[in-house]
Design brief:
- By secondary structure, this protein is mostly helical.
- The chain is 77% helix and 1% strand.
- It contains 18 helices and two strands.
- The chain has a two-stranded antiparallel ribbon.
């Protein structure tokens, strides 16, 4: 039943709405995500030099780190390997397309979220999709629907699924019992989450930036060692994207459709563009100019999909690993091991664990913001208890049902968010 519902929601309906909205903004803003990339990078790195915020806000570097932590999870490793396994090398091309269009979706989300944000009675910020659905569209029912789906998605995809991936990696790589992993994860997450958004931002900054940099560095070293295979890797990506399995061969319509669907879906799941989660993380950012928040969103999608996901894909394709029984993290481990030996397996195991934990604490901000919106008095307290309890449950449970429910709530989050992006389109513009 859930598989059928998810297939419908994540089929042509939602993908068309996501990509159509992204294409609209791309045309309307004359491809700003491409022609303005230099300005985006300058704005992002200049904002990262600010380290103190005050007035209940967190620095731009911490904001960006928390947003990257929420998106750059196991999908950058396991998700890419799954895309290659199910959709073939050409799926990576369509992940790029989803990222290019998704950059302006996140730009619009962050800009609108900063434009309509406001102070709650307790002094915290209410921003993101919650603010622009309520105050921009003047539709509290849509904001409530988004908040409910966001809480459930944060407990599912943002918590249970991530902890399960973390526990499986710790068990397979280091022999740590899942129950022990769950307790330790809950304890560490509790120390960070109970410190509020400021501590979460600092933890994300200390974790995700060095981890992402090290992952990219190891990938670059691997590709330098296998530089002779880079040309063939790009060749099969572009040929596969259009169903050309060999030079001069015919085009397979079924292969193209499958490749496009898998690539676009994995791209959306990787960078979360259009779901509205990024805007919640930017709600407490120090930048006063909404366009600055938007440009940081463009960089986050670029770093997540164009850099990290592409690196994973190229390592796999250049490694020469062809064992059809390998998939997910095992495929990436085997690829890195062809040049780095045992270090490759240990490195990927640790990367999966740390990326999963980073996603966990990043999503806690999204979920708590939504819970506080649903219940200003008790929302935060109840949510934190449920979130930490879910950490222990996720480590020891079979999460087939959880993954299906998470897909469902992620998809349902997107509908009110995209309605808001379309309705408020006149408020979105490129920086002056």
């Amino acid at each position: 039943m859930l598989e059928t519902v998810n297939a419908f929601i994540w089929g042509n309906l939602l993908l068309s709405l996501l990509l159509g909205t992204g294409l609209y903004y791309t045309v309307r803003m004359r491809g700003f995500q491409l022609r303005g990339m230099g300005r985006v990078l300058r704005c992002t790195f200049s904002g990262c030099r600010s380290r103190t915020a005050g007035s209940g806000r967190i620095s731009q570097l911490q904001t960006m780190s928390a947003a990257l932590a929420a998106t750059m999870g196991t999908g950058n490793i396991v998700g890419v390997a799954t895309a290659l396994t199910l959709g073939g090398p050409g799926a990576i091309f369509w992940m790029w397309i989803s990222a290019i269009l998704g950059m302006l979706l996140v730009y619009a989300e962050n800009m609108l979220g900063a434009l309509f944000r406001y102070r709650c009675e307790d002094g915290s910020w209410c921003g993101g999709a919650l603010a622009y659905l309520e105050r921009g569209m003047r539709s509290r029912p849509l904001a409530l629907a988004f908040a409910g789906c966001c809480v459930l998605a944060s407990l599912g995809m943002g918590n249970l699924a991530q902890v399960n991936s973390l526990a499986c990696a710790a068990r397979d790589g280091f022999g740590v019992p899942p129950v022990v992993c769950g307790l330790v994860t809950a304890a560490l997450a509790g120390i960070i989450i109970l410190g509020g958004v400021d501590r979460i931002g600092k933890a994300a900054q200390s974790l995700i930036l060095p981890l992402s940099g090290l992952y990219l560095l190891c990938g670059v070293v691997f590709l330098i060692l296998r530089r002779d295979a880079l040309g063939d890797a790009f060749s099969i990506i572009f040929r596969g994207a259009f169903g050309l399995t060999a030079v001069g061969s015919g085009v397979s319509g079924a292969a193209v459709r499958r490749c496009i669907n898998i690539g676009l879906r994995r791209g959306v799941f990787s960078n979360e563009a259009g779901l509205g989660s990024a805007s919640l993380l930017h709600a407490a950012g120090e930048a006063e100019d909404p366009c600055v928040q938007g440009m940081c969103g463009i960089f986050e999608v670029f770093a997540d999909t164009i850099l990290c996901c592409t690196m994973t894909a190229l390592v796999i394709l250049c490694s020469g690993v062809t064992d059809p029984t390998l998939e997910g993290a095992a495929l990436v481990m085997a690829a890195f091991s062809t040049r780095f030996g045992a270090f490759g397996r240990i490195f990927i195991t640790l990367s999966v664990m740390l990326f999963a934990f980073a996603t966990l604490i990043g999503w806690s901000v999204c979920g708590e913001s939504a819970a506080r919106y649903l219940s200003p008095r008790w929302g935060s307290c109840v949510y934190r208890i449920c979130f930490l309890f879910a950490c222990m449950i996720g480590a020891v449970q079979d999460l087939t049902l959880v993954w299906q429910l998470s897909d469902l709530f992620n998809g349902l989050m997107a509908f009110p968010n995209l309605i808001g992006l379309i309705w408020l389109r006149r408020h979105v513009h490129p920086p002056a």
